[in-house]
Amino acid sequence: MTVIITGSSTGIGFALAEFFGKKGHRVFGLSRKNADSKFFTTIPTDITDRFQVQNAVSEILKTEKRIDLLINNAGMGMVGSVEDSSQEEILSLFNLNVVGAVQMMSAVLPMMREQRSGRIINISSIGSEMGLPFRGFYSASKSALDKVTEAIRYEVSPWNIEVCALHLGDIRTNIAENRVQTAVSQPYQRIFEKIHQVMNSHVDQGTEPSEVAAYIEKLLAKKSWKAHYYFGKFGQKIGVPLKWILPQNLYEHLMRKYSKLDE
């Protein structure tokens, strides 16, 4: 199986690339930084640059006759108040989390159509299902990716190509170090500091990236896919069906308690 994984230099992407490489698959990691691994090949790529994406896929097809799996993992977190976020920060976030993923899909789909098969996993977040306090634009970018995923499923189904969104809870990585933090104005500073501490503690207590890889392997064994899958600790996954069934005010009350907003 030929696998392409974006954002493979660290964290979840690196764990996925090593996992599938150790299984004997041909794995290509696309990331801006080189990854030191004997289990997969890194092609330095900025996925927000359409020409770099096209060149990377062309490079892969020089040696590979097919592309079986694309995992759109590359992404960026952003924390801060909605009010204080700048246009430049918002556009940069959406450019990576949404446009970059779309450009990757556009680059692999011609080959998948030709071979009349292929699978694409867009790494989303449980937080895409609700507006998280001080992570509003991150939630929005992942929600946008979810809707793109739903739409493209219809469009590519005639060629036996399957696409899904995998919504992750908190995974134990260095994401806290790499998040973009917008300026936080004085009215929000006290409450933001509390929320920021809580969100970082959730990451520290999160699921190991290797467990995500094992879950994806199980997904690949399925004959057909649903549009959405959810992976993480029970306390995070349960937030999704609760969002669907509870009155909004009650749900917000529970979210405030979970985020320790009222303490």
Topology:
Blueprint: E1 2-6, H1 11-22, E2 26-31, E3 41-44, H2 50-60, E4 69-72, E5 78-79, H3 87-115, E6 118-125, H4 136-156, E7 161-168, H5 175-178, E8 180-181, H6 189-204, H7 209-220, E9 228-231, H8 234-237, H9 239-245, H10 248-258
Parallel strand pairs: 1-2, 1-4, 2-3, 4-6, 5-8, 6-7, 7-9
Helix pairs in contact: 1-7, 2-3, 3-4
Q: What's a quick, concise take on this entry?
A:
This protein is of the alpha/beta class and 263 residues long. The protein has ten helices and nine strands. It has one domain: 3-Layer(aba) Sandwich (Rossmann fold), CATH 3.40.50.
Report on this model:
- The protein has 263 residues and is of the alpha/beta class.
- The chain has a single domain, classed as NAD(P)-binding Rossmann-like Domain (Rossmann fold).
- Helices cover 48% and strands 16% of the residues.
- It contains ten helices and nine strands.
- The protein has helices spanning 11-22, 50-60, 87-115, 136-156, 175-178, 189-204, 209-220, 234-237, 239-245, 248-258, and strands at residues 2-6, 26-31, 41-44, 69-72, 78-79, 118-125, 161-168, 180-181, 228-231.
- The strands form two sheets. It has a seven-stranded parallel β-sheet with strand order 3-2-1-4-6-7-9, with helices on both faces.
- Helix 4 (136-156) links the parallel strand 6 (118-125) and strand 7.
- Helix 2 (50-60) packs parallel to helix 3 (87-115).
- The longest helix is centred in the middle third of the chain and has 29 residues, at 87-115.
- The mean pLDDT is 93.
